[in-house]
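PROTEIN–LIGAND DATA SHEET

This sheet pairs a single protein chain with one bound small molecule, zinc ion, given as SMILES. Inputs appear in the order they were entered. The predicted three-dimensional arrangement of chain and ligand is reported afterwards as a token string under its own label.
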Amino acid sequence: MTTFPFSAIVGQDEMRRALLIAAVDPSVGGVLVFGDRGTGKSTAIRGLAALLPKMKAVAGCPYSCDPGQPAESCPHCAKGGPRKSGLVPVPVVDLPLGATEDRVVGALDLERALAHGEKAFEPGLLARANRGFLYIDEVNLLDDHLVDLLLDVAASGVNTVEREGLSVRHPARFVLVGSGNPEEGELRPQLLDRFGLAVEVTTPTDLPTRIDVVRRRDAFERDPDGFCRGYERADRALQKQLTAARARLPGMDVPDATLEAAARLCLALGTDGLRGELTLMRTARALAAFEGADIVAIDHLKRIAPSALRHRLRRNPLDEAGSTARVTRAVEQVFSQ
Ligand SMILES: [Zn+2]
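PREDICTION REPORTED AS:
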């Protein structure tokens, strides 16, 4: 199946930017996308994964692990034997709402247990998502316990399964992308806060954008290959930019003034704990790297603040303004002094 090119997506700038930032630095944490149905959330993730450079992976390893990493960090490769590798596309794994915990984290391979009396591990969806994206549509309808577990694994990069006499630890580094419709159930604040970024997507209301969306969708469906050829150059340019940003990231300098500004902003908003500040700093750094800047400036911070902070605000019954407006207002107040 042909994937709709990432660079052909019209509008939805905030969502696209958040996904790009997570691709530059997965340590910013997952991305939560709030909004209407049919706003191209799943298309955007697939498009982004498809434009990323293919990754070198050990052939036959269920965790697609990196041949450059020590074999001991992977239960499959640790068994020894040759580690041939090949190039594979960056995985995008869908986590269906009805998925059981066993299916997600992996479980005892019952067939092998019954037929051969062997205790073997059957990897789950987290194994397949390693080094790629895990997408959950309507994450707010998923069991809290499972969301908690996913956030833990995403943060640590390791999936640990202990049950029925099995004990397995395998690499599971992925960017968690959850989409939700706030009208259909809410995420607990403790869970919200653990997502790195939160963005809002809406169906475009201006005419030229709507026309453009429909025109491109129609052209893609009539001739997918021809349509994709038209965006090959743009996608390749974006891929180059991403690769350069990843290489640049470890050397990025975050000046004290930027850190101080981040702290002042979080203080003004009264966000709990230091997670907000840390995410704000990392996000601004990834954005600066993506844009080819040498240092992380206050301007990067200002632009990214709504995505990094809007889901961390405590409810204020006296404040009628929405969370995005509250962040914007705080940015104006803090940086006008
Ligand atoms: Zn492996």
